[in-house]
Design goal:
By secondary structure, this protein is α/β, with parallel strands linked by helices. The chain contains 22 helices and 28 strands. A 6-stranded mixed beta sheet has the order 13-18-17-16-14-15, with helices on both faces. The protein has a 5-stranded parallel beta sheet with strand order 6-5-4-1-12. Helix 17 crosses helix 22. The structure holds beta-D-glucopyranose (BGC).
Length: 766
Amino acid sequence: MKNIRLHLTAPILLLLSMLMFTTSCDTTEAGTQSDARVSRSSDSPVRFTELRHPEKVDSVLALMTMEEKVGQLNLLSSGFAETGPVLSEEYRDMIFESKLGGVFNAHTVEHTLELQRIAVEETRLGIPLLFAFDVIHGHRTIFPVPLAESATWDPGLIKKASRISAKEASAAGLHWTFTPMIDISPDPRWGRIVESHGEDPLLNSRFGVARIEGFQGEDLYDVTTIMATAKHFAAYGVPEAGRDYNTVDISERTLREVHLPPFKAAVDAGVRTFMTAFNEYDGVPATGSDFLFNRILRDEWGFDGFVVTDYTAIMEMMPHGYARDEAHAAELSINANVDMDMMSQIFLNELPGLVEQGIVKEEQVDMAVARILDMKFDLGLFDDPYRYSDYDRETETIMREDFLEFALEVAQKSIVLLKNEDQTLPLSKDTGHIAVIGPLGDNQYDLLGSWSAAGEWTDNVTLLQGIRNAVPENTRVSYTEGAKLDLHDDSQAGFDEALQLARQADVVIMALGEGRHMSGEAASRTNIDLPGAQQELLEAIHETGTPVVLVLMAGRPLDIRWADEHIPAIVNAWYLGTRSGDAIASVLFGDHNPGGKLTISWPYNVGQIPNYYYAKKTGRPIDPDQRYTSKFIDAPNAPLYPFGYGLSYTSYEYDNLRLSESEIGNTGRLTVSVDVTNTGDRTGDEIVQMYTRKMVASVTQPVRQLRDFTRITLEPGQTETVTFDLEAGQLQYLDQQLEPVLEPGTVRVYVGPNVAETLEASFEVR
Ligand code: BGC
């Protein structure tokens, strides 16, 4: 490390000395000067955002040739083999030629130092590279997948988990993570639902902000913090049929009311970067969308960071049928104030020619470069380009003992107990023989879930191991796989052994679900049942008569109608990361009382999808006795488990819902209070939820909207009064002209343990 600092060579020193006295250079050897903040013309698409380091940025810009500028807009992925990073000769050459502004998937101190050294010491200007990575739910210490983390309903917890991830990632040389994904999805067929925080706008806003605050910290200059990315802008979570990358066609009202609030919250929280979405919205691919990026993100919200495309998304505007050719695609994107091109290399190749021909304004390119340089200054990379790549810090930080302990806590709090008939759970640790059966029972690999950054599956504690860690030596714990974790393998070859074991055992713990690559990107399903022969295996084991506990692991809700009817206890364990097995075992044996709740309505079957809780009532609300009402004739309307649902080993009673006002003005506020009592005999966490409904409005309103929530811990017999503030502003909706309003009339308030079991009260808006 020290050696490298001493080797800072001419280019960077020249640059740094220029910064000392330059505020607006107009003559340099490179020539192409422009002040990105000053020159404006009325017909220009350029959005001149405020920079954090305007003088410094201008002085660097003034030194740059057009080729060097477009190099800054180019982001490529580093090759990363199983055994570590690969630096191909092609990359090396591109860095030497100043054709890269950043590299993603490059991590570890060793790799980032090597790349940074070339950028800083071997190029004319020595501008440092940005290193990015998809640190989604952990860097090396892997936390539960985001959908699971959202089931904690505890953004503070996830902020802390993100802080830990930032510490690990920054110690591995990284400056930037492509998280949070705050795409709202009510569609479990869509594989990326695993990366979301469920179907609700408020939850996605709160968790998105928590992640941003966790990663970016108070000050981006602090070497333990890294930039976050709000992605994917916008409406990526509602592709038709749940098929990834597919067309999105929703109204501007739905876009603004449901899908945009988390992104607005991200801007307000100071997120430094945005990522475009792959999909089109209203006929225009997001990556070239003037409406999304110029009008909404820059003009309405005043976002001052930079926008990166998703992977090859500029190029994809051609197959979309929107861009004629690469030059046209570059023009459309840069004019939408999209700043950095991930993987297409179209900005690099096309922008110099477009500027030359006068098709794209040079100040448009300058503005994009300026935004990126601004962040490099913010991160302190011009002060010391190697400050994030520190061998000692890397060794001390990665997988720290306290990080692993915290990963266990998050994993425990993410678990949702879906069913527990006759108090089947918790199990006694002295159960004579526990049989663990199923392809996820002793599986380390899949516990990582989708996007596991630098996570290594060999670090993971399996369910079998977790159970063995928890029980005394004289408890027999046996295991067999029973069925394959494969969508296309129905083999029952393992059934006999599984049945034999089940017959001998006192209790069977069945570990069933999906493999980690069955959800995530490009992993949409038309069926959400248990893959392969797992359903048949479950039914066969149930037939033995030995009590069965089902532990589900998956990145989405699965169709478990049969299990819900026949299996007495069901624990939804998602993918919980490094400490999975310990967390699940602590719930199975009652060392941890589960308190997680669903952030998505769990569908009864695939045909119900989408089945989100904030639906409208319709003119013919369901009536089981009336044929011509809005309902299915072969399935209920209600989901299998409602939004906000989750059980505990104790029980809670809600009482005495009261409002501080019976009437408020349309700028007023009131408080909503309820008494919650732990009526069981164990300490537990309860997630108290508040919803509202505006009964009549000039635009029909959803039957429920989540307005606030809190996770509290109650001792047996303890009562706590939970009070929520409710402001008129929170209740606004868009009128027929898409203007925010709150019209006079009745608002009903609902408070309870989930959306379907609530106490009610009402107040009037004057
Ligand atoms: C995903 C992004 C991700 C990017 C870089 C894309 O395929 O859609 O979410 O950040 O790859 O890995």
